[in-house]
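worker-3 :: picked Isoamylase 2, chloroplastic
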Amino acid sequence: MHPLPCLAQSHCPRSGIIGPTKLFSANCGNYGKRLVSGPKILDLEQTMFEGRLVKYVRRISYGPHVLKSVANSDISVVKASENMATYRFWMEIGGQLKALVKKKSNNKYGLYVEVGSLQLYEGQGELVMIWGLFRADSTNFMPLDFQRSSAGADSKYSTIETPFVKDSDGRLAVELDFEESLAPFYVSILLKSKLGSNSKISTIRSQRKTNFVVPVGFRSGYPSPLGISFSDDGFINFAFFSRSAERVVLCLYTDNTVEKPALEIDLDPYVNRSGDIWHASIHSSMPFVSYGYRCRSATDNKEHHVLLDPYAKVIEDLGLGLPRKCLGKLYKEPAYDWSGEFRPSIPMEKLIIYRLNITGFTKDKSSKLPGDIAGTFSGISEKLHHFKDLGVNAILLEPIFPFDEKKGPYFPWHFFLLKGEGCALRDIDSSYYHTEGGDNLTSRNALNCNYPIVQQMILESLRYWVIEFHIDGFCFINASHLMRGFHGEFLSRPPLVEAIAFDPVLSKAKIIADSWDPHEMEKKEIVFPHWKRWGEMNAKFCVDVRNFLRSRSYKQPCNSALCFSSSTSGSELSWNCGEEGPTKKTLVLERRLKQIRNFLFILFISLGVPVLNMGDECGQSTGGSQEYADRKPLDWNAFRSGFGTQVTQFISFLSLLRRRRSDILQRRSFLKEDNIEWHGTDRTPPMWDDPSCKFLAMTLKADALSNQPTSGSPDAGGDLFVAFNSANHLQKVALPLAVDTTWVRLIDTALPFPGFFTVDGVPLEAGLATYEMKSHSCILFEARKL
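worker-3 :: tokens ->
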């Protein structure tokens, strides 16, 4: 048993240079109250932080120093060991501030702050570190309860001043210990110095003129890969793109049944940001189970809803309130065991595709599937026999990503999931979308596909589905949009189209462009740069064939449709065959039945890849509308009717015919001019410019070297003669002269079932070289040896 291929529609090095954040105004007057004068050597003191002890070191006096200026990058991050991280900040007056964070064996985090190359002004000076802690909001410090003899037990402060001391090597340093249970949090640091005999007080900040910010209990993280990733040392890295957000808050949940996160970390724009990527990492032992993000501007303090990570691959659907909220799960999904599975690797030209909507395919009660699998992927697997009966070897799933119900399935929320809302890309960063340009692109929420970060997201999504789910290919609706730039202009060499064509991971995947526009509900004719990799849905095929069969156009457009790739994409160019709506008139019903047969016949006899729409096999129609809302669930009872039976058998016959005559009908390259001969009714060339002539015939000549017909065999590989009569009257057709062969009829769509198609073929009567075609019908003859 061969599995059906499935087509889905639709580490960088650590950054070495980052910097501290803007936290609060460095007003020394506000902090001076915390400075304790007196002896230069003090005993060990303790601080109460949310009921837990925090230790800080004694302070002593310093010797004379002279200021100097050093210009360089603001901060570098160096990983010293598995349990240690070092941050080096350049100060605005020159010199460096070094912060070392270490996880100790006594369930504590140690913070060691050292000032190097700092020279104070003349005489004696004193250096003090003013520090506070924050998590969710960098503008508001967490309260600290400070106990000492000079302050009451109930006094509360948001910052503490700790003097520097000289360590054993003569360096100025401060060391703080924090309980491990407090983490994660930031320590915001500002330096204050008392210089010279005039006791002049000055503040010292980073070279960016901001506070020094050091993460404790978590790491600065890495900008790549985007989404979450799990490292061997037990850390989970978060990486999130947003150029427009000036503040990004990482929201962590310990319980998915509650509305508010258990912890929010206001990511520092210098420590936790590289370019436009915000990043951080926490240890997997922390009790968090899911996550999301809030994006804010610099002055925006509104309570923004929590957004789903665009790269989340496992989600938790909370369904709490409106808008509906989904969170990424902090869960490393185990790799699926694909042992024993193999890829069919069916060449593009040999595909017979069935396009369906996942929900609509088995949702109806007539599918007779249990309620828990009806309308699901499992429901499709329960109906595999249906595809095999039709001869289908590939399934094209309609847009399967979560989408905005108001806009329809062609406006997805997410590209790595099959469900889950709450990831409005515009709320994350407006550059995901076209923000200017023609055709009102902004109001259409059109993705800016050739913007680098969007291009990267799309490529990584395609690779993810190919690698993790063994998807065999993709079809891009509204593919003409892939050719547009940021301003809406058309690009002759669109980066995304080229990147997909030459991506090594996608080299074996089927890539199909469909220029149908979901906004205007129409096909667009474009010159698509296929790079010899992209297949294209024939935008003109449906229109030309429908116009010809309803006697509304010349034959010449139809002959082009027959010789190129094909599709049964819907169109509103319908014909009621003589009466609108349901009818009991025999003539109208017979004409409608012939037209259905004709459409299917032309689809399968054309040179290209046939694409069946869900419901084609039982005549289920959307009334000419392509609106998503007008697509009805498939009625499985229709297959048990006489009509459903004959159409299903006819499709199965056509599928077998394409495989048997793959030498002509499943060629990778177009037929040579010598292999196609066009005819009128009497073997003369067609009257291309006569609009009153509704007849067209062609002979498809088999390759004499590779396909020699054998006597009487249904596997014979002789020439094929095809004729189409869209007129309202009979036509007598002269078949080409046969040499050492005879013509056998395989199909006549005007004959009654079951005789209108046959595998064995019906030979022409002896001595006859003509065949009488009824109105609105098609025929197929095959040359076989006598």
